[in-house]
Amino acid sequence: MQRNLRLYLVYQVAHNGYFWLPVFFLYFSSILPAGEVLLLEAIYFFAVVVLEVPSGYFSDRIGRRLTLLISAGATVAAGALFALTASFSAFVAGQALLAVAMSFNSGTDSALLYDSLDALDRGGEIGEMEARAHTWGFAATATAALIGGALAGWDLRLAYVLSGLSGLVAFGCAWQFVEPPRSGRRALPPAGQLRAVLARLRNPLLAWLFAFSVVLVVVAHVPYEFFQPYLAFLFADRDTGVYAPTPLIAGLLVGAATATAALASTRAMALDRRLGTRAALLGALALEGFIIAVMGCLVHPLVIALIALRSVPVAVSGPIVNARIHPRVQTEIRATYLSVQSLAGRLAFSAALALASSAVGGAVMNAPIMSDVLLAFAGAAALCLAALAVTSRCAMR
Q1: How far is it, in rounded angstroms, from Cα 254 to Cα 143?
Q2: Which residue in 219, 321, 342, 393 is deepest, having the highest Cβ count within 10 Å?
Q3: 17 in helix, strand or coil?
């Protein structure tokens, strides 16, 4: 189990090597109309929805190690497909592979960490270890975004080549993982497993954290989806025809955002102790909604500094939420539970993207269209924040 703990941080670095992160919207939109670009993102989230719970069940039933090996292998295949093809149908396949990579990792990495700590009688360290893993992961994303954005100024496909290579490193780490021992029963058949997960939502705290996590997934992904066209509108007149600066600027912004998030994640548990879980989580969600609202109201270089904070809410809330969930969920349903929670959030965002795609249609993305979509998301975030604030006191008694 000690080997798992040593390799876990390296695995997080490799898995989070998202060199494509600052350029995926730019790459897709350089080939496809805006409606198809948004549809591709909706397809990705729908694919994750389809795979999220089966992947969690696979992890609980078959094992953490093999699940992570599948995730890393899909990362390699997705990187190759995006780098070597350039059509809507090929991109759909690439998005499906990327969904496999994300869904098979989702929840299983955290479950592997907790199971390994629990086997060493160190389960109480999960919050601090999660925060440390988040820090390493965000730092890796920051570095990858800087490199990917810089190289993509010459060729957008280079970012996907590097992502595939990072997936190979993750595969090597997963290969060396040791399957943690199971302290509880084996996973139930699928229907029974799902009933066991839903039964845990009778716990008021778990139910509230579930709802919070769903809302945060939706709200946190909005700046992620729209910061690239936002930058494109700001710096459209800087393209020399030889080197396009927008990918580099996007990479710098992603690097700044994830570096800031890495720093924030180191303080997550301290913030939880100081402010309390309720204030820390609601404050994180409020910050994300504020960022979206400002992006929708103003296209100005000064807003870039605010966008750089877009990953902080996730960095702060992730360790806090997981530290509350793990001790309250049995080993045999842990990955399935986290997958169901993630599925609900991704399903909600997939539906929101599909609605946005339908509203935009075949129009070319422009500043007014982007503003309307962002302000609609900001309004929905405000309503959800109010509902969570009202219900939080009862849930956290």
Answers
A1: 9
A2: 219
A3: coil
Q: Region 65-73: what's the mean pLDDT?
A: 93
**Beta carbons of 71 and 17 less than 8 angstroms apart:** no
Stated pTM of the model: 0.70
- Neighbour-count burial of 266, counting CB atoms closer than 10 A to its CB (0-12 exposed, 13-18 middle, 19+ buried): middle
CA distance 67 to 234: 42
What is the rounded CA–CA span in Å between residue 245 and residue 390?
45
Please give the Cα distance from 369 to 359 (Å, whole number): 9
Q: Express each pLDDT in 200-255 by its tens digit.
A: 888 888 989 999 999 998 999 888 778 877 887 777 665 555 556 666 777 778 77
- Residue-level pLDDT at 242: 54
Answer yes or no: are the C-beta atoms of 244 and 27 closer than 8 Å: no
Gap between the Cα atoms of 217 and 124, Å rounded: 26
Query: Residue 190 corresponds to which tokens in the numbers above?
Result: 């699928």
Q: Answer yes or no: are the C-beta atoms of 219 and 285 closer than 8 Å.
A: yes
Total residue length of the chain: 397
Q: Which domains does the chain have, with CATH numbers?
A: 2-178+190-395 (1.20.1250.20)
Q: For residue 43, which of 348, 344, 377, 354 has the smallest C-alpha distance?
A: 354
CA atoms lying within 13 Å on the CB side of residue 333: 22
Instruction: Cite the beta strand spans of the chain per DSSP E.
Output: none
Both tokens of 233, joined, read 């509108």
Q: Are 82 and 53 in contact (CB under 8 A)?
A: no
